[in-house]
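Collaborator request, handled under Task 6.
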Amino acid sequence: MLKLEGKRIYLRPVRRSDAEQIYRYARHREISRFTYVPYPYRLEDSYAFLKSLRRWRRKGTSEVFGMVDKGSDQLLGLIGMHRIDRVNKRVEIGYWLGKEHWGKGITSEAVRLVVRYAFKEMKLQKVVARVWHPNIASAILLKKCGFKLEGCLRRQTFRNNRWYDEFMFGILKREYKFSDREQ
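Structure tokens returned to the collaborator:
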């Protein structure tokens, strides 16, 4: 089983036993505000999501990891690699974290782990992420991880009875800073 190790967390594929913890986090309105997570979120939504994940994994189009605390082995949130494009060597990432874990650098660590995996192991050349305006925290996080703002897709997403612009961020393999030990 794939496991990506960080300092405080590790990433591992999401499994069926995560359904209730995913439900406990995803049912909060704040999680759905800037994501495609439905609100209200029900336990049945967790199981349907896990079923979709198995299908996407078989097709090779997506891989979703649980962000897990190393000390407690507690699932903290999810980070996914979507639209895996092996021909053009790129992938889109998306993530959410349980609200009680916000502001602790957990998602930044997860993003760095996934980007390193995409470049080093999958041999991809580009990682992108979309941020719905006004999700400033996510935009700051991506910039902190080395992503560059590439453009704005105006009125791209209609959600919660309003239009959102989407900011597209990207990082190229040649821009990514591998540590000396990794290269």
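The cover message to the collaborator said: "Residues 4-175 form a domain with the Aminopeptidase fold (CATH 3.40.630.30). The mean pLDDT is 94. Please let us know whether this matches your experimental observations."
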